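Reminder to self: tokens first, then the designed residues, so the page reads top to bottom the way the pipeline ran.
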């Protein structure tokens, strides 16, 4: 765990929990110790951006009290920075935006979008099309990274792009901006916690097509399938 590195953006200074020393400490600790690639431990899948541990272990590792850890985790969950689910003996913590923090591909995409915004006005339509194209692929990549057990997406068809576009348009006037890849990251992480959609309760399992369809996406976001 002491090898390698993580990236931090200076925007962290403007983060709402930055002045909360304990919460920032827990957040940074989880960011540092999270898996940088998918792994498995005693039959438990630990994906990129996740950490299998316990509250007491986090308390020991950060030199904070168990109460402080629980409070900080609760705060991080309230703003969707961290998600978690429990096994018989451990808890798997997920850094919701891990790929956005650490993924070089996302950094390249962001640089491309920033460069496009600096272009001339008469190039706006072309730039927008390029950004949309990048977003479609990033969404597929996120799904395959986090929810491949539901069936890997191998073809980004025009029909799938149309479904994604429909979902983005439908959610335009809500607090969930699905034109932002970060929202899709949080959405897929949210789905991974829902037993029904993941096939942990019945024979039904959600698919990529199911999840990006605007009618189903709205139901998921509104909590219709929650545990």
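Designed residues (227 positions):
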């Amino acid at each position: 765990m002491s090898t390698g590195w993580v990236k931090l953006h200076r925007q962290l200074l403007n983060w709402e929990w930055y002045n909360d020393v304990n919460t920032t400490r827990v957040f940074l600790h989880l960011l540092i110790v999270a898996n940088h690639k998918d792994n498995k431990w005693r039959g438990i899948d630990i994906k990129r951006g996740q950490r299998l541990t316990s509250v007491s272990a986090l308390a020991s590792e950060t030199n904070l009290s168990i109460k402080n850890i629980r409070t900080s985790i609760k705060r991080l969950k309230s703003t969707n920075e961290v998600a978690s689910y429990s096994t018989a003996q451990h808890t798997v913590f997920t850094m919701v935006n891990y790929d956005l923090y650490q993924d070089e591909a996302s950094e390249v995409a962001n640089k491309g979008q920033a460069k496009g915004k600096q272009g001339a006005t008469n190039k706006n339509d072309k730039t927008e099309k390029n950004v949309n194209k990048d977003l479609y692929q990033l969404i597929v990549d996120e799904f395959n990274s986090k929810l491949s057990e539901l069936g890997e997406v191998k073809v980004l068809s025009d029909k799938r792009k149309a479904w994604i576009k429909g979902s983005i348009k439908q959610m335009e006037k809500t607090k969930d901006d699905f034109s932002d890849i970060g929202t899709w990251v949080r959405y897929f992480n949210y789905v991974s916690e829902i037993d029904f959609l993941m096939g942990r309760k019945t024979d039904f399992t959600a698919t990529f097509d199911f999840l990006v369809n605007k009618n189903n996406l709205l139901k998921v976001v509104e909590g219709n399938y929650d545990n």
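DSSP finds ten helices and five strands in the chain.
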